[in-house]
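May I ask for an example protein's residues together with how it folds?

___
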Amino acid sequence: MKFSKMEKLQEDVISMIRSCLISNKSEMTLKHLENDYRTLCGERIPYTKFGFKRLEDFISSVPTLYLRTAGNETYVKAQLSEKSQHIQSMVNKQKSSKKSSLQKIRFSNAVYRQPTQPNRWRPKEVNVKWKSKFQNSPRLAAVSHNQFVNRPVNRQPPQQQYQQGYQHQNYHQSAARQDLSQRLHLPPADKKLTSTTSSNNGNAAPPVVTNHVHAISTSGQNGATGVQGNVATLRYKRTTSVPLDSEPSNPCNSLINAKKRITRKMSEITLDRDSGNSSPTSDTQPKSPSPELPTFVRTGNSSADLKKFAETFGLGEVEISSNQVAAKKKAERFFTCKVKVGKNTYYSYPEDFRDPIEAEKYCSNKALDDLIPKHSRRKSLLTANHLDILERVPPMLEKHQHGIWAWQLEMDYADKYNEALPADWLKIIDTSQCIQVEKGLESHVLRHCKPGDVLQKGQKWSTTPMKMSDVSVPSNTVQFNDDARLSAQVTYVVSASEVWCRQCDNVEFQAYNEMSIRMEKFYNAHAQSHKVTEVDAGRYYVANFDGGWYRVRAVNVDSSDVTCFFIDYGDETLLQKDNLYQLKREFATCQAQAFVCRLAGLEELYEASANSEKLMSIMSKQVLLELASDSIDENLDELSFPVFMYDADTGNSLNQDLIPLLTIESASPVITKGSITEVYITNIESNGDVYFHLHSRGYESLQELLLNLETQILQNPPNNLIEPITKTNSENKLYFAQYKVDGHWYRVQIIDWAPQGNFAQIYFVDYGNTDVINVNSEVLYPLDKLSDVLSQYPFQAVKVKMALDAIPTDFIDMATKLMPADVPVLLKIIKYDEESCPLVEFFKRSPEDILYCVNNSIGMEAELKKGDGNNNKSPKRKIISFSDELSKNVPSGGTLDRPDLPSKDSYFEVRISFAVNPWNFFVQPLKSQEKLNTLMENLQKRYQNVQYSPLQTEDITPGQIFASKHEDGCWYRTSVIKVIHKGSISVFYCDFGYYSNLTVQQLIPLDPEFLELPYQALKAKLTDIKPKQNKWTMEDCEFFKQRVEKKNFYSILRDIEKDELYESDIVLKLILIDTSDVDDVYIGKELISRKIAVEC
């Protein structure tokens, strides 16, 4: 996306504002923010350029900045972007532009061909320590559905007869991150990834006993139970595995014995031989077929057809009623219809009809469309027996995480086993410890539960009741081949620990593709009649997104928006409720296609790989997955299973290829010119070179990796990896070595050798410092043999050069003092030198939270050491030292000259700079106003980038003149009244009449050119009046302040007296005259007339 120059400027300004706020670690006032921005950028925040009249309005327009008002102050705070990735990702998924048409994967009946032989990469043994650290991500825990994994009992060695001839393709090409629409529009699956049932499941080995959190399904994919060979046990999700010697009477565990019978019977009969006339699971006589259900044929008269259907199948009376709806235009009439069949009710809403007959026809057809699939059954179905029901229903229920209606399970059972459930089947399954039967308003809701779970008989599962229109979609069963592999396509990627795929080499994939075609045609024609009025979290719907139709599950529901999880893709997005429609049962029979896995061997990169652009390159890729059984932790409740992923075209290990890409992407420290970056200093050299860290997510991951590796080496030293090191074999090689200063282990590189070859200089690649070691006595482990990730991790130490006019001789001490390793500083690139090394400025916050430039402080301190720090060239220790007693005799104007005064009873033009009351205000000689304005302008330019002083408390004495920054952001000449301690120095703003307390760090030595103009603030009082009360009241002071402050007056100097507070100061006794109007106004007389003062 291209930005205009103004948009780019606005983005840069916002980025700079965020840098100021985040570096402050807390909220700051608007005034404070403006000062920091001016310090960093040398100018005010240019909000007017973006069309805003106030800074507050501009800040409010930025979504990641927050304003808060407390009292008279407005505070700003920045949202840390990494803390809200989920919200931001949800916003980014809302696309308004037109997308390309949907391209779903289609099933191919071509003969299955094995992918290119994979390279069978395996991670270094050191990585096993990370397996116990795996945790499910919050997103995965929120959106994931139950998924089941089938894998063989005896893992066979991988097939070796792979077809060759494919050219190696380098997939490491930069690819733009695809949005949700692009991910849903996946390209057609390659023929190599599709097969018939016989190529995958015909000779599949039976599943194995496992403690993996995903249940191990034993039901075949072809509709009937098809288990051969060794028998597996079924472990329900998040439950304890059932012992093999359990009593057969336990309905949850009798599956084992049933499968033994099935194995024996399946050798004698098949569904084709059986033709539905016998039960393969029964040891008794064949069951009698159920009575043949009547045939129903629609005639076209919908109302009559509905009544006939209800009568034929005993559904009760049919009630049809129409209602006229008032229209906006009185001439128009609209009708709606309501049809009730037994306990089922149907409405023509939201459709409107001009004819009540048409409304009745529409509503009757709607009822027929719903009732016919529920009540029309196949002819001559066998009736399931008691034991079969208790064996088969629990596994079916377990795949419906949020429950299922009894009528849907009854239909699913008939489709799956070609048998009908008896009339009392609900009573039969209610005896099972694994099944909860909950009575709804119109039917029963069935849910799977663990034996002994608190959610048992009579207890409500959810406060949100299911609607009769709600259907459930069975969870995914991942079917690995006999070599523990499967072919799949990547559909969505979150991180290396959350990769969503769908299997492409089983019959379920073919059924899903055929179903999706029918679903698309159906909803394109009948969408309006299946709109939903209410959306409940956890329920399944059909979503219209980007012109296509997708099965979704509602995760979170707001007033108008719904967070939807695409159960066949693994993605999620925010949709309007208007885009959701009722999911018909015929489109809910195929299991959810998306399953989630994680990349084994990349455990160290799970967190750092979140939202990785490099990881997005595997999106839509056709892959071969191999189950990493050794990476499964049986003690963890894992929602994903670990795999080794191979490119189906080249056979390359994607796990192996992604390691260097992800490490470089997540941990490469990058700084750009014009931006502000927070860094930590790691090493300072005498030539002005400075090395630093960026404390990024990748850096934090590296620290944990190094600590983990150090612990392993100390516990079990890999001495077998130690080898002789020479100048030849060590070139460009990384080692793991111990630093003698702190005893810890770090990544190092040998950069130079002594002529004899026994001593070498090593460089600590993550810190920038060097050391000399004896290679014959030091232990150096080759890092490439310890860890794939650490050996390819980017170097963390970044070298820059501090921008200074001259490097002081004690630069290391000065810079280390100002920039300790544990305190973050801000970095800004000024330019690049002839060797392309960045020349930078560093900024730091003082203890008083003032941002200052470290470069300027070092340069100023170097200059001060050439002089005395007291605005002259005399030696530093010759400055006049005042004791506390003598400080009383120092005038407030300090060592500056006093301005010239007129003679007694003469006119004196003044400007009132500051007023407290009629006996306490400050005047400036009006004749020197122009000189004062010039001085102030030059003062701002000279000190605009300086806000910190290297002075110590002993350098400050009463009477000295400094520059200091007032809270209004301007610089003023400041005289020292008294030094209390380093954190409190009493000062006087000698040109404007303010008293204040500052710290040592806020006083900046003043250049001699600013000492020529006399101080301008003269203390004064009105003569010949006194307060009417004993003292001036608050109202008196407020009136006087508003009347005279920041205004020009003529005055008459009556007398001069000493200041009672400061003995060395004088007070001018004046008569103030306001000549701004036609008639002159004497301020003293005005106060008397207002009964504020009286004559004295």
Q: What stands out?
A: The two ends are 78 Å apart (CA to CA).
